[in-house]
Every structure is written in structure tokens, then in C-alpha cells.
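Archive entry: two folds, one per protein. Generate the first.
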Amino acid sequence: MPVPVVTRCVLGLTLLTVFPSFAAEKDELASAQRMLVQVQAALERARVAAVQADPSERGRFFFDYARATADLKTIHAGIDRYLEPSRAQPRDAGAVAGNYRRERP
């Protein structure tokens, strides 16, 4: 009979280490989401500054704020789906562009 008790103890200790690590992961992902909100706010401030800038100071290339904003929303939604899944199977969250430098027409 001592073997089942030992087995239960080992299983219990294993479970005790799994849940805190998942909680830590959730905390870090929630922190990442807060940072994404801050990045979005910084992008919006930069976009407003770019719109208000003197046209003669504008270079040949410009930053694609719409694409960057869409990618941030995609990343934020992907973290949301992971933290609070609506179903068991993973979905394709879509790809982020990654290239935000555009040439002026």
C-alpha cells in the first residue's frame, strides 16, 4: 500500500508546480498586453506628429501606421485567444506584416 501513497504525493507535488508556472505565464502575457496598449498610444502620438509635420521635412519614405496598428491588434487578439480560449482547437491568427517602411507616391 505505500506505493499508491507515494505516487499520489509525487503527482500532487507535480501539480503544485504546474499551476504557479501557468499563472506566471498568464501574468507575463497580461503585462505584454498592457505594453501593447502603450505601444499603440505611442504610435498614435507619432502618427499625429507626422501629420502635423511640415511637408518639406517629410522624406521619401514614411511609416505605415495603419499596418502597424493592424498588426498590434492581431498580436493583442492572439494573446486574448490564448488566455481565454473559446474552443479547444487553435486557430490561425493571421500573419503580421513586419515591414512598415513605405515609399511616398
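Generate the second and append.
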Amino acid sequence: MEVLLDVKERMSILKNFYDEVRVVDPINNIVFSDDFNLKINNKFNEKDCSLSNCYDVWGKKSICSTCISKKAYLKNDTFIKLEYNKNHVFLVIASPIEFNENKYVVEILKDITNNGSIVDGSGEGNYLDLTMKKMGENLIKDYLTGVYNKRYIDQRFSKEAHRNLKESIPTTVIMTDIDSFKKVNDTYGHLVGDKILRGFAKVLNNNIRENSDWIGRYGGEEFIIVLNNTNLKNGVKVAEKLRKIIEKMSFDYGDLSLKITSSFGVCEVSEKEDPFDTIKNADEKLYMAKMTGRNKTVF
């Protein structure tokens, strides 16, 4: 129950976005929740606010064929689907968390029965189409580039870095931005600038490891890349690889074909400093790269 209270406290600012939040313990097959409106089949334990099975809330007798909590737990990522409870349709978002060194999955449930969405009436949960998926992604994704936003960076990075330090796993941070981006905006306009930003983010995202690394838009044309299980030496290699890819590319917009360059600052997380100081230090390295000629990597 303690983990549920902690999650609800942290999510209080989003209380208008969901009807219920519950915490799933996949290992012990327990669900913690305190919203009585969704409890069915009389399997709710008032003493510890738990259900005997996560699928009890849907009135099912076995695990859902489209279970996203298990998927979120195993793949350490966020998943979204539609689920049904009698005459109601719910948007379900499942995302992994850590609490007191134990791993759980937070499920956010939103009743979307009357919001005009078109859903399949088969009675089975279906993965969302792109439109529905954006409802959840808007909470953590940058609207322009599609990579993670500043809110997500602030929430994930520190916890991930501390966990890696505890397990003696190296973490390297890359800060990067587009050289002379203001000149691009001033010369060609913001529509072209936005196109460049989207293309830049896509190139970065497509050239890091999908299952361990991640990228976020830190602000403006500046991006952060977090490389898990990567030391400084290998992090510099990644930055240089990205820099050379960008340098050789052309970004097309109508009849325009533009060449850009980018600068990089690289630092490894150290137990001697706060993880966010690593971001600050990498940002300072990026500034040095720009002040000493641009289109280079400083570490």
C-alpha cells in the first residue's frame, strides 16, 4: 500500500487526466488500488487495498492476452492499450517504476467511453491506433520532434543514473545541438527550422541503441543523449559517429537542400557528483565545442 500512496502523491498534478491509478506487482501477482468504483467480482481486500489478480478489475478469469503490465515490466518501457469493463472503455497506460529497490508497474486508467473515440466492439482489449497512443505520449514526448521531453528527462535520468552507479554500470551523457541554428531560422524561416529539428532528432534517435539508450529534447535545438552501460571513451565514439553522420547529410525542404553541422559535449556520470551535475558539465563541454570552432566533440 505504501507504494500506491507514493505513486498517487507524485501523480497528484495529473489527477484530472485519469480515473484510477493502480500499482501492479507482477512477481507476487498483486494489484494495489484504492478506487472502489472499478472493483468487481468481490475480490477486493479492504485491509491492504489489493486485488488478488490484475485482471480481476476487468471481470476476466485469466491474464489478458494483450497484457501490457507484464510487457512494461519485462521490457522496461511504457505501453498503451484499450480495455473493456462491461459498457465502459478504458485507456490504459502501463509504465515501470522502482520503489524501495523493488520493481512495479504503474497503471493509469482513463474512462474514454463518452469521448467520441471509435473502438472495436469485440470485447477484447486492443492496442491503440496512433491517435489514441498520442494521448499518453503527450505526457512524456516533445510535441515537435517526438523524442522525450524535459519533464521525462527530469524524472528518469537521476533515478537511472543512481541505479547504474549502485550496480557499477557506467552511464555517459551527450549534450548536442545544431551549429548556427538561429541563422537557419532567420534565413529560411521557422518552418524550415522545425523541419531541420525533426530531422536532426530522427538521425540521433536512429543511431543509438534502441533497448538501452534514449534521447530527449533539453530545450530549443539542444538535445541530451543518455548512454547506459557506456563509459566515457565509448561515449565519445558515439558522439563522433553522430557528428560525422550529421556532417555528411542534407536536409531537404521543398527545393531547398541544406547542410548543417553539430557540436557535442560528453561526460560520464560519477559517484562524486550529483547526476544532474553531469548534465551541466556535458553542457559546458558543448559550449566549449561551439566556442572553439563548432562541428567538434569536447570531453
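Annotation attached to the second fold: The first helix runs from residue 2 to 10. Helices lie at 2-10, 68-75, 130-137, 150-166, 181-188, 190-206, 232-248, 275-291.
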